Amino acid sequence: MPKLPAPNEFTPGQLGSPDAVFEILKHIDGVKGDRAQVVEWIRSRWFATSAEKRAHDPNAQLDQQRKRANNVVTGMQQYGLLDSPRDPLVLTELGSKMLTFAAEPADGHRLFTSFLLRERYGMELLQIALDVRSRDGAVTKRQIDDELRSRGYQVSTNSSYAGKLRQWLEPSGVVDMYWNVDHQILLELGGATPEEVRSWRGLTPPQRAVVEVLRVRGLGNRTAAQSAEVLELLRQRGIEFNAGLVGKQIYEPLVAAGFIERTLKEAGRGGKGGTVQLTQRALDLDVGLIDGLELGDVPADLQAELNRSTDSILADLGSADTGKKGVALELLALRVAADVGLIPAEMRLRSAQTGGAEVDLVAEGAHLHFTRWLFQCKNQVAPVSLSVLAKEIGMATLLRAQVVIILTTGVFAKSVVAYAREAAEATAIQIVLLDGQSLANYRAKGPAGLRAPGVPRGGGLSGPRRRDRDGVSHRAMVSENDQELTQKDDTA
Description:
The structure is a single chain. By secondary structure, the chain is an alpha+beta fold. The protein has 23 helices and ten strands. The chain has helices at 12-15, 20-30, 35-46, 58-78, 93-99, 105-119, 122-136, 141-150, 161-169, 183-190, 194-201, 205-218, 227-236, 246-256, 280-284, 287-291, 300-303, 310-316, 322-339, 386-398, 414-426, 436-445, 447-450; strands at residues 225-226, 260-263, 275-278, 343-350, 358-366, 370-378, 403-408, 430-434, 462-467, 473-477. Helix 21 links the parallel strand 7 and strand 8. The longest helix is centred in the N-terminal third of the chain and has 21 residues, at 58-78. It is flat, with a radius of gyration of 27 Å. The two termini are 25 Å apart. Mean pLDDT is 81; it is low at 454-492.
């Protein structure tokens, strides 16, 4: 599970200025990396008056000040400026290069930013910020942390890692304190723009393979390649594709995305014929950088859609385009999982482990205790039948899941509602039924709409019915024993 670097006390705010990094590197170099001397110098320079609450015990106060000074050193190690050995401290290649820019801090910060973008999840962080702004109109600490979690990052409670990483990116101008990103500087220092990242990650394996084959060929020969030659190279690589739909499924999307140019001898004929060649954009693209980004476990074709609003996702469920409806249904599963504080683990799971059946989404939560949730989504007019629920309960047993969510744009058969109650009361598996009315509540009220009480026709993240001491029957929340599972912290 990826995790942003821990800066500890190594932040521009703590040190008073981002230029302090050059001062520290110069001192480390001057004392040959003697850790004791470095820590004492940092203590006296920045922490000599800290830990005032321990002033009654000078030794305890001094110890706390030294710990904070040590935290600066460990933060520099996390940020790639120092090697890991404890003593003597050794500058990394990056640290040594940064030292040469002590008199030209602006250039030094650009170098540092380029490293953080490429090697310390800076590109991913800015991509997330852009997606959040596109979807919600503004960016906050809580939104960034929630989005990191939803993409599979490890984020501790009250983590400040994202904001502190942004602070070290700010001096280069690639981002400001309000999470506004400069795309041109991002291209210069990071090697790719968010649009290029989305475009490349949105390609299917056969489409990527065509670009990669043409890139290798393009290094020595810029002439157009025969389509038949390209397809044969794909076969040699073991790439599976539908030979009868090469034009529609491979070439046309690549042309539309600006990666290739295609020429046909006869207009309207030869779906897999003609010649193809890369555009300059495709030749210049840093594919290795983009493929190395940790943008989460969500499939690439869905990554490009994560910035969409919940309202637009729900609207697409009624589209006449089956492909658009399918994407919307998967995005909805991801959005619901995120809104109840879960982390996506696997999507489109199909294996011997599931008996060949497909699970739309497996998500996990680690709150008061670990839980695994299975999502199955149905976009249909006919009522969801009992066989669907029975299969999902079996899948939950195989995959050791504790919660099953079945989501439909329609309604559930009465037998499904009754069986869900019985299963939840008789087994450790909790059943959540979300129907069309539940989605209407979700659209109108946001995450709170998912927790609306009532039978499945009325929706809600609900579990089995129970009776209170007065004999009144009502529905219990699925998280009755662990409210963290369905209620997100609304504090900033």
